[in-house]
Structures are given as C-alpha cells and as structure tokens.
Amino acid sequence: MDYILSILGPLAEGSLVTLQLFLITLLLAVPLGLALALVRISRFRVASQAVNGYIWLMRGTPLMLQMLFIYYALPFVPGIGIRLPDFPAAIVAFALNYAAYFAEIFRAGIQSIDRGQYEGAKVLGFSYGQTMRRIVLPQVVKRILPPMSNETITLIKDTSLIYVLALNDLLRAARGIVQRDFTITPFIVAAVFYLIMTLVLTWLFQRLEKRHAVYD
Amino acid sequence: MPSMTEAAAMTSPMILADGIRKRFGANEVLKGVSLTLAKGEVVAVIGPSGSGKSTFLRCLNHLETIDAGRIVIEGDTLADNDAGGHARYVADAELRRICARMGMVFQHFNLFPHLTVLQNVIEAPITVKGIKREAILPKAEELLKKVGLLDKRDAYPSRLSGGQKQRVAIARALAMEPDIMLFDEPTSALDPELTGEVLRTMHQLADEHMTMLVVTHEMGFAREVASRVVFMDGGELIESRPAAEFFANPQHPRTRAFLDSML
C-alpha cells in the first residue's frame, strides 16, 4: 500500500500530460472536423475531393507515423521547414488525425437528417448557414453522441503513443517505474487510472445522451 | 393565351404561374402549367397521384427549380424565361425575400423535433426576421390559441398527434406573416379521424381571406372551402373552374373519370 502511494505522484504527473494532450486535441479536432465535414458535403467538388483525400491519408496511415513525421521530418520538408517542440508536435498530429475521424462522424450525422428539415427551414426563409446552425447541427449532436463517445475513449488510450517523442505521459511514467523497481504494480495502477478516465467519459456522454433524449 | 395576359394586366395577382415546365430526368412532370391566383382566393388542386400537382406547388416557392416558364409573386418576378426559353431565377437574396411571402405546410409536417411547440413557432421570426423573443411571444401564443394548442406550447413535437403536429406547422408558417399559404397534401399523412381538426383550421384561415393554394385529396374540403378547383393529370392542368360548377358539371372527360373514381 505504501508502495502504491509512493508511485501515485509520478503517475499523477503522467496523467496530467495525458489529460492535457486529450483535452487540447478535442478542442482543436472537433471544430476542425466539423469544418472538414461541411466542406466534404458542400457543392464545391474540388474542395470536397481534397477533404476526401485528406481523410484517406489521415485514416490510412498510423497515427504514430504521422507524429514521427511531424516531429522529425517536417523540419526538412522544403517550403515548410517548421521545427516543432515535442509536445506541440504531438498535439498537431493528434488534432489532424482525429479531425479526420470526427469529420466522418459529423458527415454521417449531417446526412442522416431528413430532407424535410431543410425544406421546412427553407420555406420559412432560413439561409443555409441559419439552417445548419439552428436546425440541422443541434439535431446532429444527438445522433453523433454514441460514435463520439467511442472515439474519445479511443483518444484517451491513443495518447499513450506520445512515448515515441519521449514525453512522460501516464503509461511512460508507469513503465519507467516498472523498469526501476522490477515490479508490475505501476502497470496495474496505470490501468486503474485509464479506467477512471474512461469511466468519467462514459458517464459524461451518458448524461449528454439523456439530456438530448427529451425530444424523442 | 390572351386570357392570361388580361388577368395579369388588371392587377398583379398573388400568384402568376405561366407555362411551367419541369422534368426529372427523362420524365416530364410538368408540361406547361399555367395558373393565376387572385387575392383571397382559395384554390384546391386535385388529381391522381403522379399528376404533378405537388411538384407544381413546390415549384412556386423554389423547393423545385423549373426548367421553363414564368413565376410572378405579387407582381415580383421570381423566374422568367431567357431568350433561349430556359427559366432564369432572380438573385438569391431577392429570391428568398419573395419566397418568404409564401408559407408552406407539408404532408409530413417537417416540424423541428429538437424544439418545443412554441420554439417551433418563434424560431423563424427570431432567426430570419431578427425579431426579439419578447416581441414575438404574444403573437406566437395567439397563433397557438387559434389552432387550439396553447396548452401544448412546451411539448416536443414527438408528443403530439399527427393532427396536432399539422396545426403547429400551420401556426409556424403563419408566424412569418405570409400573404399566401401553400398546402401540400396537408391531411394525407393523418389518420382519418384527425383530418377534421386540420381542415377546420384551414377553413378558418380561408374565412379570414388568406390566399391559399391547396393540393389535396379531400373532395369535401375542395367542395366546401375552395373558391376554385383545379384538376391536373399527366403534368397538365386539365380544368379550372369555380368549385360548385366543377363538381356539379365537370367539363373534361378526364375530370369526370377522376371524379367518378373518387366516389
């Protein structure tokens, strides 16, 4: 017991890194994903196809590869040549990757809304933007909650990939202690930490779903 | 068509549709339909399914775009043929402004499910017209009272019967203060015992001299409320006459065949 208490400190510090990456990724990827989805369903063929290609690229290659590319290769790409510190590099990779997944969820959600809703709004004089903001997207939120719940839980666990940039997230902190102390207890404690995080997420999404269930 | 031009020349009619053509792929659903509505007229459009009557209605407020023809709403041109005989619409903002004068009620209501009854009614005045919530509330409540649903103001549409939903849809359309109301088979999705309440609301509206164009299968409504009945078949307007005359003495054989099949 004393041993577990003694490793809680470093593991909590690791959790902080994990949670930071998680929250900042969500904050960036949700609006970016929405923008991508709107372009994807727009009439602008070229832009729509470009988004299609982007989603294919981001879903078709490993997130770890994308992260390594942004950190190690981006500085040498002619014309871009940006060198990002490790944590920002991780955030950029995560946000770009998750935006692609979110975009597909949002697109499916938007396209599941009945045509009658657009027509009902149109005959009342709503512009396209007003229809989206006031009528379509509020209904989309409800439909995408289950897949978004899935995706955010995956994100919490994917954050452990940042060990490749030598960032001390929860899992890397645990592994460090395991290697130092020759005991697997830190792994078990780390697992409990992850479980608590996903439990909170599950609970949050359940509450949201319940709140949106009032109208059906 | 001299009668058409004469009618248009007198005063600007509420709706002037002239030579409307519309095709979906190889299927020409409207083969040059013309119709004029004067202020306060209640016109029922009847005809077999697939006759193009709903499509015609949907063309008037730009839910469908026409291929050829002219649409003028209260003197303002919505679409007109270019030199090549293809319909050209006015610019977007003008188009929205003109179409906003027509309220529409759909077969499947198209209420906004995430909004309460009251919110459904006040959403468009607030969002589209920029009216303050407090300013529109009394009017919204008055409209709900008129359609007999004030007690449901805070209910969500999913809790309402079909007839109640349709009456909310009517109140929602009226909240935008339209000059014309278009009804696209407003009772077709309702259980028979619920059509009465919707028809009564429409009757009331007709009594207040609202200009109405109603695509319907309700012969009783066409007979009692409509000032004029229009029969469409195969994408053409076959006959258009005052309601009493239309039913008592239909002229065209296709009209007679249709009326016979209905009885």
Automatic annotation (TrEMBL), chain A:
One Pfam family from the record: BPD_transp_1
PROSITE patterns reported for this sequence: ABC_TM1
Ranges for domain ABC transmembrane type-1: 15-205
Record keywords, A-Z: Amino-acid transport, Cell membrane, Membrane, Transmembrane, Transmembrane helix, Transport
UniProt keyword Isomerase, yes or no: no
Keyword Repeat: no
CC annotations in GO: ATP-binding cassette (ABC) transporter complex
Molecular function in Gene Ontology: transmembrane transporter activity
InterPro entries, A to Z: AA_ABC_transptr_permease_3TM (IPR010065), ArtM/GltK/GlnP/TcyL/YhdX-like (IPR043429), MetI-like (IPR000515), MetI-like_sf (IPR035906)
Protein topology in the membrane: Multi-pass membrane protein
Parts of the chain that traverse the membrane: 20-41, 53-74, 86-106, 182-205
Primary location: membrane
Assembly, per entry: The complex is composed of two ATP-binding proteins (GltL), two transmembrane proteins (GltJ and GltK) and a solute-binding protein (GltI).
Family per similarity comment: Belongs to the binding-protein-dependent transport system permease family. HisMQ subfamily.
Name of the protein: Glutamate/aspartate import permease protein GltK
